[in-house]
Amino acid sequence: MAGKPKLYYFNGRGRMETIRWLLAAAGVEFEEQFCETREDLLKLKQDGYLLFQQVPMVEIDGMKMVQTRAILNYIAGKHNLYGKDLKERALIDMYVEATMDLNEMIMHHPLQPPEARAKHLASIIEKATTRYFPVYEKALKDHGQDFLVGNRFSRADVQLLETILIAEECKPDILSKFPVLQAFKARISNIPTIKKFLQPGSQKKPPLDPKLLPKVMSIFNISNE
Amino acid sequence: MSGKPKLTYFNGRGRMESVRWLLAAAGVEFEEEFLETSEQYQKLIKDGALLFDQVPLVEIDGMKMVQTRAILSYIAAKCNLYGKDPKERAFIDMYVEGTADLMGMIITFPFTPPQKRNLALIIERATTRYFPVYEKVLKQHGQDFLVGNQFSWADVQLLEAILMVEEKEPTVLSNFPVLQAFKARISNIPTIKKFLQLGSQRKPPPNDQYVATVIEVLKKD
């Protein structure tokens, strides 16, 4: 069955959001099934849908794919968002692995105990502004092209934009010292598929409402992860 | 310049060990530079050798590659260990991500405060979440290798993970006869057999000195 990809996750960003971004950027319509209770997740496990008993899971091209990176790699490869050769792919991989490291820190922020939260936020901002953003600023400045790799739109551009936006949610002026990234952000946001994804009513998910955190943790039994 | 890949990391397993395994399995000779002091590490950063100020670093084919998965993917593709089409690649990716998650628990173990270490959880995950999957995959298709009836990155990394867990719990494969046969079979592949012998570049499990070196090298002033 050719059909649209179908995403299985809870109704929030988490590890599925980068996949939503990439599908949207590629102009691929997708369906979603949300786990709202522990029982929902348990049923997926019992039905044998989840190779390693975990979500994200994406049904695509006859496969029930799990593991976020495997899913992203497949989508990127399928939709020509992964460079034209091995070396471009290598550079894209380096860039996206770093954005995922930063995303991971930001994703874990709500899980920090209250007394550690301010320090954790400071660490996120420091890493973003001294370890990660300077690299992309320089890469774009050095070659002067519109896109990070190979003068062509790729998953690296999508994932960098996603990371910039969630970093800005942590600190709205976080790009103040990165003029090239500011221009990049505006330019990539204007790509029609991305522009559509950024509008209200799209499948882009909002930040996690802190009041819902205990419920999300209980669905995934996160204390045991 | 010899043309061989050059690995820069601590003199121990950590995140570089999977890279050593893959290069060795592919029969690719490599050189290593070991980080022993904070000054060495700061110099690498100052010289612009580390894209995100982190190791592993692998100099290969004119690139200074960082980010473990980027490095592994490049080597796998270059050495024909990444399947023959996107779907095989997808399965290889799923399988290596699973073993990477399992090994990740073990890699961080010595850096976790003793009271928070949970060896029982590692063994539980190995025997209930991960090994059953690979046992079933191999049993169902009855082939020698995990994907596409051909040796791939997935086989190398599964063997690495099996051996790593066995070091923590020697009987861990007792309920997995197909994995026991897999382990013996893959260990006998000439390049792998060589890597498993004394004197190879395979690193021993981490000890206190390794942990202390890592902390010292990475310390912030």
UniProtKB/TrEMBL annotation, chain A:
Residues 85-208 form the GST C-terminal domain. One of its GO terms (molecular function) is glutathione transferase activity. The keyword tRNA-binding does not apply. InterPro entries: Glutathione-S-Trfase_C-like (IPR010987), Glutathione-S-Trfase_C_sf (IPR036282), Glutathione_S-Trfase (IPR040079), Glutathione_S-Trfase_N (IPR004045), GST_alpha (IPR003080), GST_C (IPR004046), GST_superfamily (IPR050213), Thioredoxin-like_sf (IPR036249). Residues 3-83 form the GST N-terminal domain. Pfam families: GST_C_3, GST_N. The keyword DNA-binding does not apply. Keywords: Transferase. Belongs to the GST superfamily. Alpha family. This is glutathione transferase. It comes from Chelydra serpentina.
TrEMBL record, chain B:
Keywords: Transferase. It holds the Pfam family GST_C_3. GO terms for molecular function: glutathione transferase activity. CDD domains: GST_C_Alpha. InterPro entries: Glutathione-S-Trfase_C-like (IPR010987), Glutathione-S-Trfase_C_sf (IPR036282), Glutathione_S-Trfase (IPR040079), Glutathione_S-Trfase_N (IPR004045), GST_alpha (IPR003080), GST_C (IPR004046), GST_superfamily (IPR050213), Thioredoxin-like_sf (IPR036249). GO terms for biological process: glutathione metabolic process; xenobiotic metabolic process. This is glutathione transferase. Belongs to the GST superfamily. Alpha family. It is an enzyme of class 2 (transferase). Its EC number is 2.5.1.18.
